[in-house]
Amino acid sequence: MHIRAGRHARHARYELSEASGLDATSLDRLAVAVAFAAEPEAIDGGAAELDRVDGDHHDLKAIDELSGQAVFSPLLAARAGRGLDEDDLERSLRRLLNRGYELLLRRYESSGSTWIGTVASLVELVGATPSGAGVGQGQIPVIEVEVGRGEAGKGPVVSWAVNDESGQANNANTRLAGASGKGKSQVLLHLLAAIVQRSPQTGFVLLDYKGDLHGNRAFVKATGARIITPDKEPIPINPFELPAKVNRRLAPRAFAEIFAAVAPNIGPVQQTLLAQAMRQAYGRADDAGGGCPTLADVRDAVVAEYARAGRGEDTVIAVLRDVAELGLFSQRSLFTPEDLLQQRLIIDLSNLRTLRDFVAFVLLEHLHNTAQGLPDAPFDGRRKTRALRSIVAVDEAHYYLERSRCQPLLSLIRIGRSKGTPVFLCSQSLEDFRGATELNELLANTFVFGHGVAPPPRGLAGALGIGKQQAAGVADRVTQLDQFMAYTNLARGDGNTAPSPVRLTPLFEAPTFEAAAGS
Predict the structure, then answer these.
(1) Are 360 and 400 in contact (CB under 8 A)?
(2) How many whole angstroms from its chain centre is CA 431?
(3) For residue 410, pLDDT beyond 90
(4) Cβ-Cβ contacts under 8 Å for 518 (sequence gap 6 or more)
(5) What is the rounded distance in angstroms from the CA atom of residue 44 to the CA atom of residue 144?
(6) Which of 99, 201, 398, 505 has the fewest CB atoms found within 10 Å of its own CB?
(7) Residue 65, beta-bridge partner list
(8) Which of helix, strand or coil describes residue 325?
């Protein structure tokens, strides 16, 4: 679920993110904490501008939970002296975000526009440094993989320290953008195979939208991946089975928002009925012993709620009937949250047709909840490296990014750094990432393959971390790139000269492939 704050909060978040290197969710939590500590009256009173909604969307669930535990909602409920419903929580956190970012930016400017000075000024007020600031938690080695060769394949090897957070690329979230046939899928498979080979404890979930990837036997053999074809065997999770530390009150509305995203003709009345039915399904599961509802339980609850409201069956019930009757998800999750993220799964969505987006969105929401319910991934403060639990890889991501309609995916990207669950996205154009304004910040690693139409220089500049003048030159050359050639911020030169393309390594040329093919 997402709330919208004011535009002054958006501007402050961008400036503070650049200065601090923190992800958006960590800054959101910090802003709320600062406002709660310094001016708690902002929750109930204060200026009307604290209710402004002309800025970015913020992930309500991520803000309210830290290391899987609800933080702010119990404090707000205690202050109110009563229970706290979703509308109360939404309005209170919006006001705290708006005020908190104002206070944070003021402290930043009064500290000489240095983040170290800002943190020093906050320690006494908040009592801790922000999440992800860096405390040594043991030795976590650098996961370094070779991605290709610079200078169009004739230069030195270009390597990527995937989990190194010391530089400008302070997270492992990654995008691969380019036209069909330019080699994105082969490079994606190579990156996944190389990472898990060097980090055996890291898992992945690969959403195969068109069915083009799971047939690569060498990749499956090299990674030990399990292929799940939902129309033949269920995805081994119950999407409504939430980790114990995830706030169950927010799940019904999040599920209703998924329906609204995959079926735009669903209106607010249907969303309300769906959310009410979900609450009843969870309530009955609690009464039966504290479990979680299945898809069949949710379907039955929605049918009953529609009947009470005197409403005929529609898209909502049709989709729920199909998903439940086809058995696309298990009735019980087969893995604990930690175990799920250590699996290596390829989900073949290609045969699901009209149900494909719904299944993908529900699965991404479950992965987000799973990661959110776990403590932050261990971080080595000396090396500035973070443990990687799992990679969520999405092929044909433009179907999910259009109009930012897949909020579960964006939520997962926002927490990817702190939870050690980065997201890798393959899409057909760099322009597909324009829908959510913070994606340039959150997707720290970019590979721009050949495009049919030159992307705007401004977008290239932000994605590759180069100047606008350099980007203008690169834009003209992007349309002429051969297969497996790409521009990347991992090899952007000295900042004064235009970068040269890198010849990236496809899976079939990688040592991983040769070993798997020969065994």
Answers:
(1) yes
(2) 18
(3) no
(4) none
(5) 50
(6) 201
(7) 70
(8) helix
Encode pLDDT of 368-382 as tens digits.
Answer: 999 988 889 998 888
- The three-class DSSP label of residue 449 is coil
Q: What is the dihedral of CA 254, 257, 262, 267, to 10 degrees?
A: 150
Q: What angle do CA 487, 493, 496 make, to 5 degrees?
A: 115
Tally of CA atoms within 13 A in the half-sphere of 386 that contains its CB: 28
The answer to whether the beta carbons of residues 231 and 328 sit under 8 Å apart is yes
In Å, how far are 104, 378, 495 from 386, measured between CA atoms? 26, 6, 27
Helix (H, G, I), strand (E, B) or coil at 493: coil
In Å, what is the CA distance from 376 to each residue of 65, 66, 373, 417, 444?
Answer: 11, 8, 9, 9, 19
Tokens of 405: 């309609």
Half-sphere exposure of 396 (CA within 13 A, CB side): 14
> If you ran DSSP here, which 8-state letter would residue 358 be given?
H
Q: In this structure, what DSSP letter does residue 164 have?
A: B
Which residue type occupies 76? L
pTM given for the model: 0.75
Distance from C-alpha of 71 to C-alpha of 90, rounded to nearest angstrom? 14
Burial 172-194 (b: 16+ CB within 10 A, else e): bbbbbbbbeebbbbbbbbbbbbb
Average pLDDT over residues 53-62: 83
CA separation, residue 211 to residues 124, 206, 207, 237, 394 (Å): 54, 11, 9, 21, 12
> What are the residues whose beta carbons fall under 8 Å from the beta carbon of 327, sequence distance 6 or more?
234
Between CA 35 and CA 32 the distance in angstroms is 5
Grouping H, G, I as helix, E, B as strand and the rest as coil, residue 384 is: coil
Considering the chain, what is the average pLDDT of its residues?
84
One-letter amino acid at 267 equals G
- Higher-confidence residue of 298 and 204: namely 204
- The enclosing H or E element of 356 equals helix 356-372
Report the distance separating Cα 299 and Cα 296, nearest Å. Answer: 5
Gap between the Cα atoms of 308 and 390, Å rounded:
43
Exposed / middle / buried, residue 18 (Cβ in 10 Å: 0-12, 13-18, 19+): exposed
Span 288-312, mean pLDDT? 87
Which residue has tokens 């799964």? 345
